[in-house]
Amino acid sequence: MIVAQNLIKSYGAAKVLHGVSLTVAAGERIVLCGPSGSGKSTFVRCLNGLEERQGGTVEIAGHCLSADCANVLALAGDVGMVFQQFNLFPHLTVLDNLTLAMRRVRRTPHRAAEEEAMAMLARMQLTEKAASYPRQLSGGQQQRVAIARALCMKPKVMLFDEPTSALDPEMVKEVLDVMTDLSCQGLTMIVVTHEMGFARSVADRIIFMDRGTILEEADPETFFRHPSHARTKEFLRQIGTQY
Amino acid sequence: MIVAQNLIKSYGAAKVLHGVSLTVAAGERIVLCGPSGSGKSTFVRCLNGLEERQGGTVEIAGHCLSADCANVLALAGDVGMVFQQFNLFPHLTVLDNLTLAMRRVRRTPHRAAEEEAMAMLARMQLTEKAASYPRQLSGGQQQRVAIARALCMKPKVMLFDEPTSALDPEMVKEVLDVMTDLSCQGLTMIVVTHEMGFARSVADRIIFMDRGTILEEADPETFFRHPSHARTKEFLRQIGTQY
Amino acid sequence: MSYEILLQSIPIVYAGLKLTLIVTLAGFVLGQALALPLGLALTARSPLLRWPVATHTFLLRGSPLLVQLFILYYGLAQFDAVRASAIWPIIREPVNCAIIAIGLNSAAYVAVIIAGGLKRLPPGQAEACISLGLSRFSRMRDVLLPQVYRAILPSIGNELILVLKASSLASAVTVMEMSGAARAFTAKTYAPFEVFIVAGLLYLAIGFLFGIAFRFVERRIPGVAAIGKSGRAAQPRPQALGASS
Amino acid sequence: MSLILAYLPHLLEGLLVTLEVALGSFAIGLVIAIAAVFGAEFGNAPVRWCVSTYVTIIRGLPELLVIFLVFYGGTVLLSRMFGAYVEVDALTAGICALSFVSGAYLTEILRGALHTIPPGQAEAAKSLGLGTGATFRHVILPQMFSYALPGLGNQWLIILKESALVSIVGLEELMRKGVVAAGATQSPMTFYLIVAGLYVAITSVSMAIFAYGNRRLTFGR
Amino acid sequence: EPLRIGTSADFPPWGYTDTAGDIVGFDREVGDEICKRIGADCAWTNQSFDGLLASLQVGKFDLVISGLSITAERAKQVDFSKAYADAPYHIATIKGGALAATKTRAELEAALEGKAIGVQTGSTHEAVANTYFKNADVRLYERNEQIADDLAAGRIDAGLLEQSVWEELMKAREGKLELAGPMLTSADYAEFGNGQGIALKQGREDLKARVDKAIVDMISDGTIGKISTKFFGYDLSYKG
Ligand SMILES: Nc1ncnc2c1ncn2[C@@H]1O[C@H](COP(=O)(O)OP(=O)(O)OP(=O)(O)O)[C@@H](O)[C@H]1O
Ligand SMILES: Nc1ncnc2c1ncn2[C@@H]1O[C@H](COP(=O)(O)OP(=O)(O)OP(=O)(O)O)[C@@H](O)[C@H]1O
Ligand SMILES: [Mg+2]
Ligand SMILES: [Mg+2]
């Protein structure tokens, strides 16, 4: 489903990704973690063509992404993305947020799109928020709308970039619940997160990045019990067990 | 050191504090927690006169605060406050951030203020950042500067309002370390936080607020082992053990 | 278009340059000086302070500067009481009237900018000051105003250019600055184009110099990137809409 | 006094012309500005250069000079092109000249607003598969206007007052009517005060309208 | 194809608007009479003075009739018809002032030395004031009533305007002003120009010839004199 080979990315002189490779099978659930600035976001954004790259190949959901992302629109919603800052369209109601791309990209008729969107909102337990504007929702609700918006396009792959880190502690749970739910349905997912509880219970594989490279890659059991790198251990100590 | 009685606060029609009372002895360390919107910030801000109140009395660090906070400046730095958003002065260097109030409020001579401030920075391990501007620092460093700035005024009471929740996971630790350090020195403190590890190891008393009232009040041992209210249990489950 | 007239009009416009600069710079400085108290009054808690100033700035921003200039210059002079008073020696001179009218007008605009800047500062800044015990005066002088001025510096630079352009109205009260000189030249020779082009170029050149000066000042002032951004500096990303499509 | 009253209808006529010129040039200026913003953000280097030169020069010159040069320079050009004088009526001419001026200012306002839209908006649109056109129309443009509204309101008030300058191309708008009436009646102060009052009146009304628009365009804030 | 005429009708009695908003005044009636005589329809446009000549040069107007004084310098840019009027000028000052006592030209010139004198932009008076009143502080005003107001307020010592204009202005200012020195004409100061003419775009010889003929006729048969008396109270038709 995803084959990334030897990705290289730099901002001017600063190299951010030093040849990152990753293969993800259909239905696999990957959790990506690592210290701040290690390049997690950049990597994920390269995967769905939001970031040009200086080298390497990306094949995702059946599309080959060119290095300058010229053909990013060919993905046409096949790769869903959920951002840390939600990035809902503030001038549209929740329902319109969901239907916009369905109608403009998938050419779903207005009526059908709204029905589908309402079904999706029901699944997210947001039915009564359909006519609200994003600003009128709590953070957790906003993030659930963002997930719903991506899912409406029936993506083959979902990418999540720290979807819970802008949320209040109590709202984290409602979003993690939705994501756990998705993972049970066999969607291919890459999730950047520091929620180690989630990683442990959901991930097929955990990937640890540091300074633009993949340092460690293992199933959750191995990752938490026997991390091989000192940097990973240090990271786990700081994240997991602060006191 | 702090005696708050029957605090009432409303925004227009919405009542936010429904008669909150709290007595804190000198040297006591209180952790305040509770769900979002329960009024923790509002309560703490009433204590140091940042928020007018509609009823109740506040006596803090030897001053009686009037309900309209007209005499808030009489506190003159006796009550230190650390905010979630740091609120450093962005146009001043770290050193000037620290010395400004010492010079203008305490009338400490320029030279003496700088010496004291440098000593404080040394304690915070920030000596080499003295000439930096706040935005050149990481979040953890900024928060440590904010703490240092308040400490420079030699406050009798320190209030912390979610001092770590705007920080990256890795930076949380450096700030909590500093706060633990302070708590060992016998400073009277009220800390609003969701860091339960910190609460457990540092607090003399944990106070749980919900919907503008204090629901539960106990030593850490009792609080975590045998919470008496269902709401507290629910909260602890969501915060502490998400998965 | 004739080169002979073009050359002829250069010294004509140049003769107005000095007056343009005097009116511009003096008007600007007067405007800035008055803007600060007005701006503070606009954000004052007391309605007794706020309302008169709000009305004043509204009237000055809501009517054409030319009319204001006429009222100050010709209107006031009609009253014997004014001519007997201490301000007469000042407003007797056309240059002073132009400077005062432009300064008052500019002050109204800048006051609103300052008030806006104060309101846009994160409330945490004032709260931090209170919790440190800083007096109101010190809060303004040491913390809030430096940040406001840093944030509105580009607007103030803009204002200088606007005042430069407004100075072209001074000729309505006999102050023959550049554009007035250009119009007088046109009236004398009936050749309208050349002299306006020369004047235009000079205005552009002065505006350009002012712009450079302000950018220089801006770069010299450290600190505050943008108002309201505390914590980690926002990561710069490429343009709002990618150029890839 | 009765002589003054007799000239009031002329002032009101002038007021109508002022409104026509201001509204017309605001609308056309807005169209120019949208095109210029699109060019400045998505165009190639020459287009970007053209836009920035246009904006810089227009904003650096006193408006009277710009209107003068645009209109008379433009007429000379047009006449050369067609080999004979091209008749442009005063209203069209005034609106054209002022549109050109206001277009430059509006470009800057819209560009500023465009840059306040978080980049995440365009990225979200892209990740949903929306093309550049659809993104601009459905995601960027509505937000841009909502951010730009205060700036647009300011610019409208400025154009309102600047419309006084188009009397140079032969339009009898409010200010010119005031001057003419002042000349005919020998009571200049009265007319200047009335004219100022009329401007302030329109200003108040338009500010109320913009405040209403601002409230409508807040999307649940 | 009507003849398009531009004028700045803010200048009584040469050109102004009546309460119905129509352009009236000396220029208007002279212009209408010329049109009648050359057999043309006329369309009048009232436009601020600043734009009149540019409009003429780009072809928006065929004629500009707005009390324009004929000078050699201006004739390089536009063609002038034969002069149709020759307005007399006068200096005015505050009533009972030192200047008011002057009677002859020489006295006047001596008294004006170093004084502040108001003249109108777009008139030829600036050149006169600069040339003959030594070290005078010559100030340019856009409108004649502004000169009268500043004179009354004491900002300037003297104003130089057309004879006819003063009368109206002095009446409106309730005797605060009075005339000084003699009446002045182009015979006294050549810089005043050679009377007032009609401006045409350069090269329109045919039209100019027809207009010229009409003007010569109107002067000789007394038509202009009649119109002039109606508006000014005396005959200022060109006799040179
Ligand atoms: N537009 C940019 N220009 C220059 N450098 C950038 C830019 N965006 C990111 N970087 C740098 O690239 C590196 C990787 O950034 P990235 O956002 O991918 O890290 P991350 O692992 O997602 O961190 P975080 O956990 O803080 O989100 C960082 O050092 C960052 O400073
Ligand atoms: N300026 C305000 N105007 C109206 N309501 C307000 C205002 N500030 C706070 N509130 C309301 O008061 C209540 C208590 O807010 P407060 O910020 O004290 O909660 P909190 O416990 O600190 O929550 P959090 O954990 O999110 O910081 C909330 O319901 C909030 O919506
Ligand atoms: Mg990231
Ligand atoms: Mg809070």
UniProtKB/TrEMBL annotation, chains A, B:
Residues 2-236 form the ABC transporter domain. SMART domains: AAA. One of its GO terms (molecular function) is ATP hydrolysis activity. It comes from the Bacteria. The keyword Phosphoprotein does not apply. Gene3D superfamilies: P-loop containing nucleotide triphosphate hydrolases. Keywords: ATP-binding, Nucleotide-binding, Transport. PROSITE patterns: ABC_TRANSPORTER_1, ABC_TRANSPORTER_2. InterPro entries: AAA+_ATPase, ABC_ATPase_HisP-typ, ABC_transporter-like_ATP-bd, ABC_transporter-like_CS, MetN_ABC_transporter-like, P-loop_NTPase. PANTHER family: AMINO ACID IMPORT ATP-BINDING PROTEIN, PHOSPHONATES IMPORT ATP-BINDING PROTEIN PHNC. Belongs to the ABC transporter superfamily. This is General L-amino acid transport system ATP-binding protein. It comes from Shinella granuli. The lineage of its organism: Bacteria, Pseudomonadati, Pseudomonadota, Alphaproteobacteria, Hyphomicrobiales.
UniProtKB/TrEMBL annotation, chain C:
Gene3D superfamilies: MetI-like. It is found in: Cell inner membrane; Cell membrane. PROSITE patterns: ABC_TM1 (PS50928). It is a multi-pass membrane protein. InterPro entries: AA_ABC_transptr_permease_3TM, ArtM/GltK/GlnP/TcyL/YhdX-like, MetI-like, MetI-like_sf. The chain crosses the membrane at residues 12-38, 58-76, 97-118, 195-217. Residues 17-214 form the ABC transmembrane type-1 domain. It comes from the Bacteria. GO terms for molecular function: transmembrane transporter activity. GO terms for biological process: amino acid transport. Its main location: membrane. One of its GO terms (cellular component) is ATP-binding cassette (ABC) transporter complex. Keywords: Cell inner membrane, Cell membrane, Membrane, Transmembrane, Transmembrane helix, Transport. The keyword Transport applies. Belongs to the binding-protein-dependent transport system permease family. HisMQ subfamily. This is Octopine/nopaline transport system permease protein/arginine/ornithine transport system permease protein. It comes from Shinella granuli.
Automatic annotation (TrEMBL), chain D:
Gene3D superfamilies: MetI-like. InterPro entries: AA_ABC_transptr_permease_3TM, ABC_transp_permease_HisMQ, MetI-like, MetI-like_sf. Residues 15-211 form the ABC transmembrane type-1 domain. Its main location: membrane. GO terms for molecular function: transmembrane transporter activity. It is found in: Cell inner membrane; Cell membrane. It is a multi-pass membrane protein. SUPFAM superfamilies: MetI-like. Keywords: Cell inner membrane, Cell membrane, Membrane, Transmembrane, Transmembrane helix, Transport. The chain crosses the membrane at residues 12-39, 51-72, 84-106, 191-212. One of its GO terms (cellular component) is ATP-binding cassette (ABC) transporter complex. Belongs to the binding-protein-dependent transport system permease family. HisMQ subfamily. PANTHER family: ARGININE ABC TRANSPORTER PERMEASE PROTEIN ARTQ, CATIONIC AMINO ACID TRANSPORTER, MEMBRANE COMPONENT. This is L-arginine ABC transporter membrane protein /L-ornithine ABC transporter membrane protein. The lineage of its organism: Bacteria, Pseudomonadati, Pseudomonadota, Alphaproteobacteria, Hyphomicrobiales.
